[in-house]
Amino acid sequence: MDISIIVSTFNRSHNLPDCISHLAAQENTDHFQWEALIVDNNSTDATRSVVEQEQKKYPINIRYLFEKNQGLSFARNCGIHTSKAEYVIFIDDDIRVTPNWLASIYDRFKSEQCDAVGGRIYVESPEAFPKWLTPELYGFLGQNDFGDKAFRMNGQDEFPYGGNMAIRRDITVELGGFNTDMGRKGEGNKKEELFKGEETVFFHQLTDRKGVIWYEPDAIVQHKILPYQLKKDFFLTVHYNAGFQKAKFDHKQYKRTFIGVPLFLYVQFVKSIGKYGAQVLTQGFNATFRQRMTVNHFLGQIVCYAKKYFNKSSS
């Protein structure tokens, strides 16, 4: 087997027929073998029966897997350990791939002999974007477009996004898969579920070991956005959680702290509030929402450092 496409899903069986039908419509794939692994992450809806129905519709190899441990990283790792393919590609159930997507990824692997490949992701919304949701924020919805030319990514600020990433399977195993302490949990519409970062950590690790990552512009997918993802609370929560998670995994010992929080972080937090207030006065609320997200990121860090301090003091 050359490629396993790992589709992680939780309680969104309604997305699967559309997702799978686009996989079945792949073109120019006669020169390699591939399969789709649908990883049911402990769903309580009709996910299994829907997959079984889709298996009967198409002549492609579709396998159903079940992962009881809740979390996107657990689901992806389940697919990695089940697959026997040379390459694994990761998408979610809300992704629709374009006809030449799979062939373009495989061909890029072979032409560059690289370790990972990422493509473009375009977001599709059921309703018009609100005015505050400017193009600079689309990346937080998963959009990723580095242009029309293929190139080697640096793996630091240029790396594949989770909705469209392909990796040599042996490398995913060597690196231990995706960190199960990170990543989305459940449906991702609650504060305690909206954690990310596992993909960034993985590609930084891959880069540290001199891994080669390429961008493939013809590997294009569409990402369906849900209404709750167009709310300010979603963006603010994502940034708060990102800050919280950054502090959680920070094991440095700082000399100057107050209730466990590095003093410089208080300064950054206050400055970010001041900057936000000044921008609101001159530009209005919509144009300055990105800065408000930054405030939440610092707040998340402060809360986590303080929480670790009090937990340690009480133990």
Folded structure, characterized:
By secondary structure, the chain is of the alpha/beta class. The chain has two domains: 3-227, Spore Coat Polysaccharide Biosynthesis Protein SpsA, Chain A, CATH 3.90.550.10; 232-314. The chain has nine helices and eleven strands. The chain has helices at residues 16-24, 47-57, 72-82, 101-112, 169-174, 198-208, 232-248, 263-283, 289-314, and strands at 3-9, 34-40, 62-66, 87-92, 95-97, 116-124, 151-153, 165-168, 213-224, 257-258, 261-262. Strands 1, 2, 3, 4, 5, 6, 7, 8 and 9 form a nine-stranded mixed β-sheet that branches. Strands 10-11 form a two-stranded antiparallel ribbon. Strand 10 (257-258) and strand 11 (261-262) form a beta hairpin. Helix 1 packs parallel to helix 2, helix 7 (232-248) packs across helix 9 and helix 8 (263-283) runs antiparallel to helix 9 (289-314).
Question: What keywords describe this structure?
Answer:
alpha/beta, 315 residues, Spore Coat Polysaccharide Biosynthesis Protein SpsA, Chain A, 2 domains, two-stranded antiparallel sheet, nine-stranded mixed β-sheet
Describe the structure in brief.
By secondary structure, the chain is an alpha/beta fold. Helices cover 39% and strands 19% of the residues.
